Amino acid sequence: MIPDNKKSIWGWAFYDWANSAFSTVVMAGFFPLFFKEFYAAGAAATDSTLYLGVINSIASIIVVLLSPVLGAIADQLGRRKGLLLIFASFGSISTAGLYWVEQGFWLQAACLYIAAVIGFSGGNLFYDALLTVVSPEKDLDRVSALGFALGYLGGGLLFSLNVWMTLHPESFGLSDSTSAIRLAFILTALWWIIFTLPLVLYVREPTPRSIHFSRVVKSSFNQLRQTLKKISLLPQTFQFLLAYWLYIDGVDSIVRMALDYGLSIGLDTKDLILALLITQFIGFPAAIQFGRIGNRLGARLGILIALVTYILVTIFSAFMDSAWQFYVLAIVIGLVQGGVQALSRSLYARLVPPGYTAEFFGFYNMMGKFAAVLGPALIGAVAILSESNRVGILSLLVLFIAGGYILLRVDILKGQAQAKAYRITDSSKG
């Protein structure tokens, strides 16, 4: 068993610092902004919203199909760290490629963005699966929260630099803000790779298994079928995954579509970018605090607090029409966004049978990304049908409410007992 040590925990957590550059600078920040105003220049606001929603949905569908198989491969090979590095490299190279896409070539930008999302999501799968390798069970909430907190801080720092470049391009020897945003894609790719190195250096996995890769790929599909059976034998774990699928849909949709929504209702680009920065820096201490809430009051209660907040945020956002209201939303979302993500991950880790972490986290990521298929496309479709982006955003309410209700019905202690008992039962059959 891997010993608990600070270097491995901090090395693991710094991957959140690394890849949050993509989720903040590209996914939540400049790509939706640049897509609407540069890559898809000339398209109507509702049309570009639909395009962006479909692009995110296509990326998510691909990740949905890959996640459980990748998780099964990682468990059989015992090489989560190596696979994480492969996907992180693929994602960073695709991100850098956005620099060379010219105005109006939205389809080319879409393909590179989809590739980058696949790299980001695949890397996250193996990153999440390493949580139980570096952290004892008693510290799962705090270690998970540490990762998200560093992610908010790291992503926020790089985004701050990029915003400064965008607002004052002449200070960096750049001709205009367009050049600054394109350069931000290069910087994000470099940041992602450089800060992945602490995980590569300090996280140690158990000795990898010597299995031929072709056999692993073939057997992974069989293991995928077995995973479905395993989850069906763990009803509390399955129920949590269903709840997570619903409520994380709303969370991810807000992350991916917030700037597009702000532009669609006429808010200024600078206000939107500064609001996103506020979210990042508030998210750093807030995620740490949610880790403490998880330790003291339980992870589920912390998640439910966040979901109630998101319900209020969604209702408020449908009626806002000024920049100060968007700033208020940014502050409130910053308080809960990292918390709901961190506590969901640590709660699920408690419901996973030991020895099946990558396999089960493959399903966890699959459910999260499958949710992201529905959310952005739903917002875009409802906006087109109603001819109103405000109506589109309200469609997220049902996801938060249904997810919270199902989460309330999960018996956490029973789920933990079922997961541990499954390992004993499964081992006895071997």
Automatic annotation (TrEMBL):
Chain coiled-coil ranges: none
| Keyword Transmembrane helix belongs to the record | yes
Keywords for this protein:
Membrane, Transmembrane, Transmembrane helix, Transport
Topology relative to the lipid bilayer, per the entry, is: Multi-pass membrane protein
Q: Where are the transmembrane segments?
A: 12-35, 50-70, 82-101, 107-131, 143-167, 179-203, 231-248, 272-290, 297-320, 326-348, 360-385, 391-408
Where is this protein found? Endomembrane system
Gene3D superfamilies, alphabetically?
Answer: MFS general substrate transporter like domains
**Origin superkingdom:** Bacteria
InterPro entries assigned: Atg22-like, ATG22/LtaA_families, MFS_dom, MFS_trans_sf
In what residue span(s) does the Major facilitator superfamily (MFS) profile domain sit? 1-414
SUPFAM superfamilies in UniProt: MFS general substrate transporter (SSF103473)
Please indicate if the UniProt record lists Transmembrane helix as a keyword: yes
Q: Know the name of this protein? A: MFS transporter, UMF1 family
